[in-house]
Write a structure and sequence with these properties.
The protein is of the alpha/beta class. It contains 10 helices and 5 strands, in the order E-H-E-H-E-H-H-E-E-H-H-H-H-H-H. Strands 3-2-1-4-5 form a 5-stranded parallel beta sheet, sandwiched between helices. Bound molecules: iron/sulfur cluster.
Amino acid sequence: MGMEGQSREHHIVALSGGKDSTAMSLRLQEVEPRDYLYVCTPTGDELPDMVEHWKRLERVLGANIIQLRAKHDLNGWIEFWNALPNGRMRWCTRVLKIEPFQAFVKRKSLDGTVTVYVGLRGDEPKRRGSVYSVDVKQRFPMREWGWNVGDVWKYLSKKNIRIPKRTDCARCFFQRLGEWWETWNNHPAIYASAEKQEADTGFTFRRKDRDSQPTGLKELREKFESGYIPKILPHPQDDPGLQQQELFDEETRCRVCEL
Ligand code: SF4
């Protein structure tokens, strides 16, 4: 019997590459093995560790991760609009992540049923899934398993998986002062291009109320060059104390990007 007239079942795993979606994707394969479509939405501004993590995850999953890309990457949109995204105008998440993902889900819904698997945990009940214009079933497997943040870290450690310290954009306006220092110190070319974008657009990536240090990246760089080193947090996988804290609360972090 052919496929004609049969409805297909699409099982789409939403992957950011962060700890939650990474753990969910690996555990799902163990407890509910099937042909999943693993999907991520790169912004083109990921740090090298993050790009490497997606490649490693493909090897461990034994499957391709479909990369959905918008018309422009983050820097292309900044140039196109001559504006920087910020907490009040967070167009980056919408155009680079939400819209491409929703369009993909919609396309899949045209020839079958769609189930989307999202890495929301039991200990973050305020977070909700997305709203779709088509009929989509959303599942939150970690909530079904009763997993909290500690379970996620424990599972990743058992599987010997190390998550990149930063899974967001290199120039994300949500980053802390210590992360800007690390961007400047470890990725000077990225810092310099972000500094140039501030000069070109007249906007800043930093919020005045985050800390008492200079808002502009140029002034901040000068301060770093003079020897100032802000507090640098360790990698959570090197510090069990940090693993119990949800460092990335909804106000100060891109939760879509942290899925
Ligand atoms: S990580 Fe930051 S800059 Fe990148 S899309 Fe998310 S909110 Fe925007």
